[in-house]
Amino acid sequence: MTPTPTQILKLADDLIPDLLSELKVVTIRTGYRDIKPGPLTFKSVSGKDIVPVIVISVTYKLLRDLTEAEYKADGFASFEDVLPCMRTFYPTITLDSPVTVITYRLVKASLSPKHIMK
């Protein structure tokens, strides 16, 4: 049996605290991302933080079709905040861009006493 490769996504360092406090339980990524339900590791862009999660669901849609529950679970207060913020990571994204919506839960048992695996 071939082992399943580890799924890894980069996450901006300033978003790690929201992930750890579970204020952020969704990540929205541009395009089609081949992410499967199951274990996934978020690595901070700086490389200093590693946070394990379990992917619960993966959906594909246009940015304009995000639900209120999805964008709020990613930490956005309103839909009007989504596009400007997403453009800081993906400068060419538009409301008609396809996105991957990844819903996950934190693997608390794997966190160090500081709540971050180093």
Topology:
Blueprint: E1 7-11, H1 16-20, E2 26-30, E3 38-44, E4 50-62, H2 68-73, H3 79-89, E5 98-106
Parallel strand pairs: 1-3
Antiparallel strand pairs: 2-5, 3-4, 4-5
Main features:
single chain; 118 residues; alpha+beta; Archaeosine Trna-guanine Transglycosylase, Chain: A, domain 4; five-stranded mixed beta sheet; 3 helices
3D structure, described in words:
The protein has 118 residues and is an alpha+beta fold. The chain has one domain (7-107): Archaeosine Trna-guanine Transglycosylase, Chain: A, domain 4 (Roll). The protein has three helices and five strands. It has helices at 16-20, 68-73, 79-89, and strands spanning 7-11, 26-30, 38-44, 50-62, 98-106. Strands 1-3-4-5-2 form a five-stranded mixed beta sheet. Strand 3 and strand 4 (50-62) form a beta hairpin. The longest helix has 11 residues, at 79-89. The termini are far apart. The model has no long low-confidence stretch (mean pLDDT 90).
